[in-house]
Amino acid sequence: MEITKDLSMEISDFCPKTEQALRQFQKEIEQRKTNGFDPWIVGIGGPGGSGKSRLGAWLQLHIPNSAVLSLDEFRFPRSDRPSHAPFGSHPDAINIPLILETLIAAKAGQPVRQPHFDRISGRPLEGKELPLADVYLVDGEITAYSMLTAHLDTLILVQSSMWTQFITRMKRDRKSRNCSLVKTLRIYIRSNLMDYPRFGKDSEARAQLVFHRCPRKGLTLLKNQL
Question: What superfamily does domain 14-224 belong to in CATH?
Answer without folding.
Answer: P-loop containing nucleotide triphosphate hydrolases (3.40.50.300)
